[in-house]
Amino acid sequence: MRRIPNERGFAAELESASKRYGDVVALDAVDLQLRHGQTTAILGANGAGKTTTVKLLLGLIRPSSGTVRLYGDDPTRPRVRTRTGSMMQISSLPATLRVVELIDLWRSYYPAPLDRGEVVELAGLSGLERRLYGKLSGGQQQRVCFALALSGDPDLLFLDEPTVGLDVETRRNFWAQIRRLVEQGKTIVLTTHYLEEADALSDRIVVLHEGSICADGTPHQIKSAAASRRIRCVTRVRVDEALAIAGVRQAYHDKAVLEILAAEAEPVVRELLARDPGLSQLEITGAGIEDAFLDLTGSQRREDAA
């Protein structure tokens, strides 16, 4: 696999890009630049605009307004499309073709594809080459889709929910392959609902909310921009009372435990103790990527009805 030389400019760009479907605004004047040799995770709830963003960058759809560039050019042009690979969440492949037949078919679309054996190795398909696609498990089919995305030796790789259906060991192996690709200079765009995956793999995280970017930075910056402390305790203080304390951003019950996300822990804990001197089992930790995501997108956890 070749190492990508340094290039000027960006691998892909959205400039004031919007996409509307009738009265529905899927993406609203988004500016986004993807840097060479980085993994960028695009996060957001369902309907936030993740898939629309990827389809625009791939040239699968046109923006209603604004500009999309892939390596400084129109993303629909063959000379730039052959520099990309994509693994979309929904793919229909012929069930009666063997794994090796699918790989060879995809390789034939590119001017300088990867060697078949390297594709098989990278995707973890050794021993499955002669199996019919329709006879594979869900996780194995995911690996075939990954293999097809790699077949053309792309400079820019789009991975849409790539580890759905994979067991823990296979997911960790997949992460290792992504890191290897980035070390070789590839540019990766990742959409995922596994927030720990974005945290582990990404140089940069872009959070979409209702068609707009609400946060953009390194995983550390994203976590720091939101609630930075998680407080857990057993207390008589109710959720609504906790939410009224200054600095508290979220509060909910996890069975008998009250969980609070706050910018700072000390003043919140002092207030909790003032309201309930019998408070017990106090734990204070740093907030994680999931906490930051919920905070940035305005999502709320519901109190456990039990």
Shape: globular
Strand content: 25-35%
The neighbouring-strand order within the major sheet is 5-6-7-3-8-9
Largest sheet: 6 strands, mixed
Q: Quick gist of this model?
A:
With 306 residues, this protein is an alpha/beta fold.
Describe what you observe in this structure.
There is one protein chain. The chain is α/β, with parallel strands linked by helices and 306 residues long. The chain contains 11 helices and 13 strands. It has helices spanning 50-58, 78-81, 99-107, 116-122, 138-150, 168-183, 195-201, 219-225, 239-243, 266-275, 289-296, and strands spanning 12-21, 24-34, 39-43, 65-70, 84-87, 156-160, 187-191, 204-209, 212-217, 229-234, 248-254, 257-262, 280-286. The strands form 3 sheets. A 6-stranded mixed β-sheet has the order 5-6-7-3-8-9, with helices on both faces. Strand 11 and strand 12 (257-262) form a beta hairpin. Helix 3 runs parallel beside helix 5 and helix 8 (219-225) packs across helix 11. Mean pLDDT is 89; it is low at 300-306.
What are its keywords?
306 residues, 4-stranded antiparallel sheet, 11 helices, 27% strand, globular, disordered C terminus
Helix and strand layout, with pairings?
Layout: E1 12-21, E2 24-34, E3 39-43, H1 50-58, E4 65-70, H2 78-81, E5 84-87, H3 99-107, H4 116-122, H5 138-150, E6 156-160, H6 168-183, E7 187-191, H7 195-201, E8 204-209, E9 212-217, H8 219-225, E10 229-234, H9 239-243, E11 248-254, E12 257-262, H10 266-275, E13 280-286, H11 289-296
Parallel strand pairs: 3-7, 3-8, 5-6, 6-7
Antiparallel strand pairs: 1-2, 1-4, 8-9, 10-12, 10-13, 11-12
Helix pairs in contact: 3-5, 8-11
